[in-house]
Amino acid sequence: MGFSKDAQLVIIVGAGIVGLALAQALKKENIPFQLYERDQGLDHLAAGWGISINWALEALEKCLPSELFTRVDDVQVDPEQGRQDTGRFLFLDLETLEPLYVIPPSPRKRVSRLGFRKLLAEGLDIRWGKALSSFAPSADGNGIVVQFADGTSAHGAMLIAADGGRSRTRALLLGEAGALQPLPVRFIGVTATLDEEEMAPLRAIDPLLFKGTHPRTNHFLWFSVLSTPETNGTAGSARPHYEAQINLSWPAAAGPEGEVPRTDPERLARMRGAARGFHEVLRRAIERVPDGTVVREIKIADWPPVEWQAGGLVTMLGDAAHPMTMYRGEAANHGLLDASKLTEELKLWHGGSKTRAQALEDFETEMRQRTRQAVLLSRQACLDAHDVANLGPESPLVSKRARVMDPGLKA
């Protein structure tokens, strides 16, 4: 099957983890693409927190050239711990520090989001500062024209959107039907800097990460190491330190007392107040977060994927296609699997054994079936995390074998 240049060009919008993995996979398969990103560069936004890659490691390996995949270990939040990590995952009673559940171990890599993104970006030509504005079929109907907010445009065979949970592409395709569905949970978090003495009792619980809920207040805590003196460059200095991710969430309540405060000082006070009932080790860690720290809010929402009509010209993957809560840690894993599976379909299209429309339809059919369940399981896990009295071993918060349950919200 013969192609003109534009007739075989894949246009990708979004240079996050999933968009970059897809670009690397297409490059590996010699499928032409152009990659556009609305931000001005990799360092345009804050570094972000960590990502756990576990069951999608095989998919990631398929996407990357071997020389990049072997370096994923180097962007782990603690490479030394990563090499001996058991994969154990504790869910704790935050009042006593007693484990309520020990989630079965599995191979995983806990990576720095920024470090991982920089690794995935190596060797790619990324067109920065390109915010998607609109798209439409080309005049002959055989391709697509993508317009950007700066007045430029791109022409290609298809548009693949990896533009995140608040996807512009999803909004253009589906309108209100593609809107995020808020959950009745509020979430804030900080990046904390701790010295060896401050970090030691936390790493004694688990050297990498843990989570838990307070039995009386239903406040949920997530703790994860973000960097060590060896990875952040402070080893051997006068003040070596660690960085840690400390997140707190709680059930939304009627009235302003249940909402996230507007300012960083008020948010930090909210975290310290919630920690009063926590075990001393956890309480001290939160109380030591200094005044002036930026306290970030994340709006907890999701969207179980539905079908969209795009004439075989547009598809989505990752958070654009199936935004989910972080309470099962699966969003990035599903996104990486999306990238791998979509690449397999595009190889068939590029090789002439499938039409473009069939390749995208086959990808979307599998992706929707797989990720709709994942979104609903993550939703249930989020709700269960804040209702510990009713938390059982079959909850998707603590069980890999959980089934979809009715969370009482519109699916």
From TrEMBL:
<comment type="pathway">
    <text>Secondary metabolite biosynthesis.</text>
</comment>
<keyword id="KW-0503">Monooxygenase</keyword>
<dbReference type="GO" id="GO:0071949">
    <property type="term" value="F:FAD binding"/>
</dbReference>
<protein>
    <submittedName>
        <fullName>Putative fad-binding domain-containing protein</fullName>
    </submittedName>
</protein>
<dbReference type="GO" id="GO:0004497">
    <property type="term" value="F:monooxygenase activity"/>
</dbReference>
<keyword id="KW-0274">FAD</keyword>
<dbReference type="InterPro" id="IPR036188">
    <property type="entry name" value="FAD/NAD-bd_sf"/>
</dbReference>
<keyword id="KW-0560">Oxidoreductase</keyword>
<dbReference type="InterPro" id="IPR002938">
    <property type="entry name" value="FAD-bd"/>
</dbReference>
<dbReference type="Pfam" id="PF01494">
    <property type="entry name" value="FAD_binding_3"/>
</dbReference>
<feature type="domain" description="FAD-binding">
    <location>
        <begin position="10"/>
        <end position="375"/>
    </location>
</feature>
<keyword id="KW-0285">Flavoprotein</keyword>
